[in-house]
């Protein structure tokens, strides 16, 4: 199988697992969102440490510990992704999965805004139109929900901020998750012990299935990330960007068909505007990437430069 096809399968598998995880968190609904996130941090760390041990991949850790600025950014990323995870678990377990879907639908548009505000990136006209449509959709859905969809916005902005920090940090998925969970291991495990000591914890005493599901949260977190990292090394980011919409589509269908959330016409209208914004956004992204690839191909195929005496410089391309 070609590597590109393998990458598409791995990427689709990662997003399918992330989408299916929407059905996992109700299994631990006896625990509050904060307790679930603490367990997710602890068991995720143990999972990725086991994976790193199998790969004997430790050399990156010591240089990282000597860079306090990078560690500070990792701590910030860990805090932000904890907020994102907490909002997601709370949203799903409180019967508002459609808000989770909305959050991840508008996340690419929020990421564009973050790029403009913090990385001085310029918006193309189609991107401006997509962002405006996204803002209009949020306004319409605010009326449909009877208030601003703060959970959706919180998830979108926290994940976009996390992406910006990851861009600055420059670690791969497993390394980054290891460092983030390592930084939060003591607070997370301390919080779990505190809950158990005060009788507010649910790790033991609910059922063996509940305990197993909390332990399994580490695998549920790590496996999609591994598949995503393997896909990212095989296919273009534009393809990954298209595949990411698998998750909110699945969440929207779960909310509508499985969880029986109310979907009055006003919500359908709001989500319709979101989907229009995403069509504009994705079409522009594909056109821009295709143009960039043609330009790169043209530069590679350009004629070799002439010397002042009129002779052609020899090419350095070994394929020539």
How would you explain this protein's 3D organization?
This protein is mostly helical. The chain has one domain (3-298). The chain is 76% helix and 0% strand. It has helices spanning 3-20, 33-55, 61-65, 68-93, 97-119, 125-145, 150-169, 173-197, 208-232, 237-243, 246-258, 265-300. Helix 1 runs parallel beside helix 11, helix 5 packs antiparallel against helix 6 and helix 6 (125-145) runs antiparallel to helix 12. It is globular.
- Percent helix range: over 70%
* Structural class by SSE content: mainly alpha
Main beta sheet: none
Globally, the shape reads globular
Low-confidence region ranges: 305-320
Separation of the first and last Cα atoms: 28 Å
Sketch the topology as an H/E string, one letter per element: HHHHHHHHHHHH
Tally of separate domains: 1
The fraction of residues assigned to DSSP E strands is: under 5%
- Measured on Cα atoms, how large is the radius of gyration? 23 Å
Give the number of helices.
Answer: 12
